[in-house]
Structures are given as C-alpha cells and as structure tokens.
Design a protein that fits this description.
GO terms for molecular function: DNA binding; DNA-binding transcription factor activity. By secondary structure, the protein is α+β, with helices and mostly antiparallel strands. The termini are far apart. The protein contains five helices and three strands, in the order H-H-E-H-H-E-E-H.
Length: 116
C-alpha cells in the first residue's frame, strides 16, 4: 500500500511540475472559469492553456463541464488551494533563510580585516 501511495504522490507532483499549470490552479482557486477566462487572466495562448488543462484533467486535478459551447473548469479537490498556500509558505521560509544568510555575509564583509 505504501508503494502505491508513493507512486500516486509522485505522479500527482509531476502533474503540478509546470509553472503554467500552477498558475492555472491559482486562477481556479478563485472560482470556476472557462478556458477563455483562464487565458485572459493568465495572458497566455489558448493552445498552451488547453494543453496544460488536459494534463491536469488526465491526473484528475481539475474537471471540465460543458456549458453550451464553453467548457467550465473547476478544481476537483478544494484542498489544492491549501496545498498551494503551503507551497507558498515553504517558498517564503526558504526566502527568509536566504535573506538571513545574505545579511550575515554582509555583516561579515563589513568587519574590517586586521592589518599585518
């Protein structure tokens, strides 16, 4: 069972491993959207957005529902919103650590070297 769960997680994270897919999920976290709405909000070509939506659909991360001649996309699981928030917090933690290290380097550079 653990191996199956690990495979699921690996495939899930692979599906998220593209900046445009992450942006699409961020847009859908704000509410259901049509492909045209997603394209407009992201500022990307239709073919690129459609291609990435297909990947997300294939991995069961988003779903599409026909509405006339439009397809409306929605997140399959609202916990995706929490996952994105946690990822942002992890990024911020790394950023804080990096800034702290840089500040320490600056302090070390400001200390005058002893003269021989």
């Amino acid at each position: 069972m653990n191996l199956e769960m690990q495979r699921f997680k690996a495939e899930f994270f692979k599906a998220l491993a593209h900046p445009l897919r992450i942006r699409i999920l961020e847009v859908l976290a704000e509410g259901d959207k049509s492909v045209n709405e997603i394209q407009t909000l992201i500022g990307s070509e239709g073919s690129a957005v459609s291609q990435q939506l297909q990947v997300l659909r294939a991995k069961n991360i988003v779903s599409g529902t026909k509405d006339g001649n439009k397809v409306i996309y929605t997140l399959k699981d609202p916990m995706i919103i929490e996952l994105l928030a946690v990822a942002k917090q992890i990024f911020n933690n790394h950023l804080v650590d990096t800034i702290t290290i840089l500040d320490k380097f600056k302090e070390d550079e400001e200390v005058p070297m002893p003269k021989n």
